[in-house]
Specification:
single chain; about 350 residues; alpha/beta; D-Maltodextrin-Binding Protein, domain 2; Dipeptide-binding Protein, domain 3; 5-stranded mixed sheet; about 30% helix; about 20% strand; globular
């Protein structure tokens, strides 16, 4: 934001959300983009108009954008088909193919840089919500590898995600510095191999643990977790799934009150190395030796940045960090990011209505 504007309106510091603090910036916008906010009705709609003082040339003919939150999937799709809105985001996967075949619409999609992963409690001396007492099975690499080997990512892509996901073997997504294609190759599920590893680790009959998942944060998040429960059941693991809204879910995870959990990680700034956005205390990367703060890969990548001024050498050092971290598999990765899908309609209209969540 503008320093002068922030100082004038006493908004130099970020508001304290937990303390329910309100600052001028909480309800007023400041920026230099192509559109400015005309009206804002929280949870109802935001009207934006073209910024006449924008420093660049507007590439298009949209002079007004009306953003209307519609939380229900079916209602959102119906609004598009009826012409009440011209663009929607967050399409339910089961409707994508139908909308793609509608000649009135155009579907735009592509992969994100978010990776969905499973975090495992490798810190507690005794695993919570488990029938194993006095020890933590997730501290054993063989157990973690067994969980990973039992996950059929291609089936999740085909059945649960309707083809709208990319199986992942690496936390770092394509498009992020440090991604290495040869490391990001998913092996097929190996049930017998997974059972053998569990038996070697001392759990020939499996064991019980809990899996916490959000049910309103990621595309088909609860459905993916349900698929995992079934896949892990094939190797003798009895998993109790707890799926709840993100607000309740993340509060539980931040208290480390879990056996395992689903979460997503993405590196937003594509020109920066993979330095953890996962350094939030509750996010345990699959290669982290302790519960917090973040992945071992992050410090390795930062050391690579400090050590090498040459860009190519930095890239190779980052790939090496990812390679070494990958050999210490601590948690199964579910899949690469589900693509955002956005149908567009009425492209010649000068006033567009937009919807999203």
């Amino acid at each position: 934001m503008s320093r002068a504007w922030s100082a004038k309106n006493k908004s130099e510091s970020i508001q304290d959300y937990k303390a329910r603090e309100e600052t001028y910036a909480s309800r007023n916008a400041n920026g230099t983009g192509p559109y400015i906010i005309k009206t804002w009705e929280p949870d109802k709609r935001v009207v934006m108009v073209a910024n006449p003082a924008w420093w660049d040339k507007l590439p298009g003919n949209v002079t007004e954008v009306i953003y209307t939150p519609i939380k229900a999937d079916a209602t959102r799709v119906s609004a598009l088909l009826s012409g009440d809105v011209d663009l929607v985001t967050d399409l339910p996967t089961q409707d994508v193919q139908r909308l793609r075949s509608d000649p009135r619409l155009k579907v735009l999609d592509g992969h994100e840089v978010r990776t969905i992963f499973i975090g495992l409690d490798q810190h507690s001396p005794e695993l919570l919500y488990s029938n194993v007492k006095g020890r933590n099975p997730f501290k054993d690499l063989r157990v973690r590898q067994a969980l990973n080997m039992a996950v059929d990512r291609e089936t999740i892509k085909r059945v649960t995600m309707r083809g709208l996901s990319i199986p992942a073997a690496l936390m770092i997504a394509p498009g992020v510095h440090g991604h290495t294609a040869e490391l990001d190759k998913v092996a097929p599920a190996n049930i017998e191999g997974a059972k053998k590893l569990l038996a070697e680790a001392g759990y020939p009959n499996g064991f019980e643990f809990g899996l916490d998942c959000p049910n309103n944060r990621y595309v088909n998040d609860e459905e993916v977790c349900q698929a995992l429960v079934g896949m892990w059941g094939r190797i003798g693991l009895k998993v109790k799934l707890t799926a709840q809204p993100m607000a309740s879910f993340i509060a539980k995870i931040q208290k480390f009150d879990h056996s395992a959990y689903m979460l997503g990680w993405e590196r937003v700034h594509l020109r920066r190395p993979v330095q953890p956005a996962v350094l939030a205390a509750a996010h345990q990367d699959h290669r982290c030796r302790r519960q917090q703060p973040g992945p071992r890969l992050g410090p390795q990548a930062r050391r690579a940045d400090r050590r090498h001024e040459d860009r190519d050498r930095r890239e190779e050092a980052r790939r090496d960090a990812a390679r070494r971290a990958g050999h210490d598999a601590r948690q199964p990765l579910l899949r690469a990011p589900a693509p955002p899908v956005a149908p567009l309609g009425h492209e010649e209209e000068r006033v567009h209505a937009a919807q999203g969540r």
